Each structure stands twice: as structure tokens, then as C-alpha cells.
């Protein structure tokens, strides 16, 4: 751990151009571990620049998987501006899967916005309530200012003891250092002597990052905008003393926001456009006749619109459409920030007869929309752009922070598995492959939402009014599971690639609900347990269990079983075969045990996993000392009463006594709703019914096979062999 070097520079700080003078010459790594990896001369496995939501989530996830990190943050304190105020269904799911305490804290501080209201002039045209669906536990956004989310994530990250947020440190420069390493091979000659054969073989690489800290005061440059702007590294503050450090890491996650220094230093293009729309953002307390517990959009008669987003205690965020301005007009505009009077006047004209009075505010600014996406999210498999540094778009639809958190959710397990020696470096390529199309989709969605929100002429305004007035009826009559609002992000999927592999026998349409790359659908399950009291007659016990299926509170959900960061989950959809086929139980037990044994010896898993996030009660499992890399869950669509009750057997199925994750059986609700969600509906007692689905650690479907016989297990084994280190 000798490579971290530190120095002080006085007065004139290191400009990026000269920052290389602070770099220590790389010393050769002592022992290369994995392909193209060095581990012994680094200071920290993962360095993260930027303690916004994206960087904190990455650090927290890595910590949960036993990987240490360091987060450097330029600002001395989190931004007080509300910024992201909506956390959507998919993000809530991943918070719960990552850290139960974070989920509970965000949940307890958040305001639930049960509906969205749309006004035209002073008439309420639509009140749209997203319909709850069994497919996800969450159906409405949770409203909480980003500042609070950042505080909760910071506390959770630091509580793991696996990393710290180092405030006041600014990343100045970074690069991937590559070094050819000579390897000496020993060969046995024919005469029995040993010869040294020199071969130049592997290239080792690591990341070298230069950072600095202003010894007094902040690193922020004068006149920097918190929302927009370009990186002006030349605009240094004079007369400041800085401490400069060079840190070596295996990986760098650049979550340093829209103006990302890393992106600039690596010359990664950030193409896109700046829209002509000009908005005023307001964050403060108001007094109003309008409900401050709903998201409200008002299309004013003055052809301006305003969106109002509840935060808490009558605090709201407003986004007021201030018309269009070219960049030149915007630059020439004076004053540079809106006055309270200007904002109130435009707001009053937009609201017409609707009443709203500003009591106080802590943020009032002009806002221009940028829609941009970095050309690459990965640099030499060592540096990863995540969050706003990789993509930015308008706040319409509230997707920005959510997408950043989901970038981290996609990336962290891949880094953890590679660092752990479980997966090859090539796994990291899938981050770029998977997140770029998602970023494009989000940018498109948010642009469309923005265009729909602002006045686009008389005809389109009336069309919008008409459409909105019928949406509440449409939502009411949508079948369960089909009412996911697009902003919930539950429908985002990854394409087939080296990690998401469609099986040759896959009959399902590529766009189906449970096709490869999709988020794993969720639903209610009931643990199938052996009776605690063995004197209870079997038939009585099964009847009681059957009652549990309809009893409240809900016994458990599939997602309760998946709350182990970094773990692959193998879902075995057994249809009704455990109840109907006498020999099926023992075949399945054999396969489950055989493959779990093989896999755990081949890929021992993430050592140092901190704890499960699952509710052990719901899982009915004992507390595990360490988490295996693979967990198997058997799901039966047979009702408990259809299991034959043999009074001589201690359990109805040998798998009922298992601990969660080791083949334990769960009963699918309503005779197979989860089977249906995963495309195994209607499969009955005929041999070869059911199927196996492999969920990646980020709960997306990686592989599926329509069969649960031994041959199917062989294919699952081949799948793991193809994506993990052999
Ligand atoms: C007005 C507004 C409203 C929004 N509303 C929503 C919403 O409702 N929902 C939603 O999901 N999103 C919303 N967003 C977007 C959301 O705020 C961003 O997408 C989110 O902050 C991105 O998180 P991040 O961690 O990637 O970047 P940031 O939050 O920008 O964090 C980057 C961090 O890196 C630090 N940093 C920068 N440079 C360096 C450096 N060189 N060295 C060290 N540290 C550095 C910064 O100080 C900062 O703390 C909104 C944004 C705005 C501006």
C-alpha cells in the first residue's frame, strides 16, 4: 500500500496540464492476480469520484459485496438544492434489495404522491392514479429531496466500515496506466534439467488519479454555476494552498456529475443538444388552495405551464416554463438569476384564478435543458462513467437520479465479481453495452415528456387535454400488471449479449414480460414449510397452509428472497410436479444439491458479504454466516391441498425443510401467477413441465430454459461456465 503519494503545492495549484508532475512513476506490480489486473500496488480497489446519489450507491453496493472503496467529493457539504425529488418504483425496489435500512429511512421520510393532477386553466381535467399491481410492491413515486437521499446513502455507506466520503477532495486528472509484464516460465528439458524461458506476456493495468484539497476553504472556482456550465480548469482561484495526492486503484467510478472532470480528461465526447426551453426552478414553502400532496401540472391560459412537486411540510419544487430563448439570448439575459418578483408575476399569470402564495424559498434559478450522452461509458475496462457524468436530460419524468442509481446497480456486482476472481474482466464490457441503450431510451422519454409538458400550439394543447381526460378511465380498466407507468422504470430491459443469453429452446417473444434481460417480475409467494409440530395430522397442516395463501399480511414476495447483493438466484418453476409426480421430488433434490455443491466449489462467492437484507422472518431461514454465490428457490404452482399427505413421511416434499436459498419450496399464489409472469403458465403434470430462470445479481433475467429435468441443469451450468471464470 505504498503508492499513495501526497505533496503540497502553494499558491499556484496544479493545473491539469501540469498535474502529471505530481504523479509518481509507477512501480511494477508485485504479483499479477487476474487477467490484466494488478492488486498488490494499489491503494484502494475502487475509487469513486463524486458523492452524489450515483457514487454513494456504487460505494454502498460494493461494501455490501465486501469491496472497499473511497469516495472523494469536491464539495464540503451535500447540495441543499432539492434537485431530484422523485424516487420511482424500480429504484425503490433496488434500494430495498441493497439495504433494508436505507429503504426504510427513505420510505419514512418520503411523501407518497398517490396521483398526478392536470389542470387546463382553472379546471381539473385529469386526476391519474397509478393502479397497484402485484408485479411490483411499489406503484407510486416516493417524494424526497435529493439532499436527504444523499444524507441517508452517506450514512449507510459509512456505517458499513468499508469506505468513507472524503469531502473537500477534487479529482484533477486520471489515467489508466498499462504495463507490459515479463513473465518467466520454467520448462523441463529432455535431460531433466529445468530451463527458464522468458516470455513477455501480460499487460497489467491500474488507474492513477490525481486529486487535491484546498488547505483552507473550498475547491470550488469563483462564479461556478451549480446547475450548468463547463469545466473551466483554467479558472483557478489565486493564492490558495493545496494538498495534492496520487491514488492508485483497480477501478475508478466517475460519478462526478454533468460536468464530469473525468469525462473531460479522458476526452470522451458528450454529444447532444441544449434545448431552447427556459425554465425557472423554485424550491420553497408555499400557501395554496391546490393540494400539495399530489404532483400537479397546470397549463395556463397564458400558454405557459408549471409543474408542482410536493416534497414535505408544504415545501414544493416548481418548474415554471419561461418560454424559449436561444443560447445567445440566454447568455445575454440580465439578471442572471430570476428575481422573486419576476417569478411570482409569471406564476400568477400562469395560475390564473388558482391561488398560490410564495412564503419562502431556498432555490430560485433559471434552468436550461441539456440532452447528452457520453460516447462511451467505459475506458479501458478500468474507468466507468455513471450517472449524470454519462448522460443528462431534462428533469421531466424525474428520471435522472433514478438512472444514476440504476447505473451503479448494474455496475457494482460486475466489479465485485471481477475483483473477487469469480468473473473475467470481459464481464465489465456489458456495462457499456447495457447502459448506453437505457440512457438513450431515458433521454428520448424525458424529451418527449418535456415537449408534451410545454405549450406547443392550440391544436396540440386541445389534443393533450382530450387525451388526458380519458387516461384515468384507461388506467382503471387495464389488466393487473399492465399499468406500469413509463416513469416507474419497471419495464426497462437489457438486450441479449454475453451475459443475457436466450436459450435455443426459448419460445417466448423477445419482448415478453420474462424474456432475457428483463427486470425479474415480482409477486406474492408463501413459504412451504414442514409442520413444526409433527403431531399435527398432515391433512390438517396442509389445509392450514392453504389458508395462509389468502391470509393477510402477505406471507412474502419473491423480491424478499433476492435481497442479497452480488448473488445469482436460480428460480425453479416446478409447476405442479412436486405434488403430482412421485419421483420428481428426489430428482430435483439431487440436482439442486449436486449443482449448488459444484458451483460453490468452483466459484466460492463473495467473501466478506456483510449481511442479508432479507426479512428472515418472511424467508423462514436461519441467519446465514456468509452468503453463497448461488441461491436456489423452488416455486410450485400446486396448492398445498393437492400435495399427497403420506402420514409416514415427515415432510411432504424433502425441499420444504430447506433453508431459503438452498432449494426451499414456495407456493405460487393463485395457482401460478408467478409461473404466468415468467412464461410458464398452463404447464401441468406432463413431464418436462416448468422451467428454470437464472437471475443476475441485479435481478435481471440472464438465462432461462423451459425444463427442470437434469438436462436443464446442465444447461444452467454451461451458462455459468460461459460468463464466469473457468
Ligand atoms: C432541477 C433538477 C431537478 C431534477 N429532478 C429530478 C427528479 O425529480 N428525479 C430524478 O431522478 N432526477 C432529477 N434530477 C436529476 C438529478 O439531480 C441528477 O440526475 C442526479 O443528481 C445525478 O446524480 P449523480 O450522482 O450522477 O451526480 P451529481 O448529483 O451531480 O453528483 C456529482 C458529485 O460529484 C462532485 N464532483 C464534481 N466534480 C468533481 C471532482 N472533480 N472531484 C470530486 N467531486 C466532484 C459534485 O460536487 C457532486 O457532489 C434533477 C436535476 C435538476 C438539476
Automatic annotation (TrEMBL):
InterPro entries: FAD-bd, FAD/NAD-bd_sf, Phe_hydrox_C_dim_dom, PHOX_C_sf, RIFMO-like. The keyword Oxidoreductase applies. Residues 1-37 are annotated as: Disordered. The keyword ATP-binding does not apply. Residues 44-198, 243-446 form the FAD-binding domain. SUPFAM superfamilies: FAD/NAD(P)-binding domain. Keywords: FAD, Flavoprotein, Oxidoreductase. Its cofactor is FAD. GO terms for molecular function: FAD binding; oxidoreductase activity, acting on paired donors, with incorporation or reduction of molecular oxygen, NAD(P)H as one donor, and incorporation of one atom of oxygen. Residues 555-725 form the Phenol hydroxylase-like C-terminal dimerisation domain. It holds the Pfam family Phe_hydrox_dim. It comes from the Eukaryota. Residues 1-21 have a biased composition (Low complexity). This is FAD-binding domain-containing protein. It comes from Linnemannia elongata AG-77.
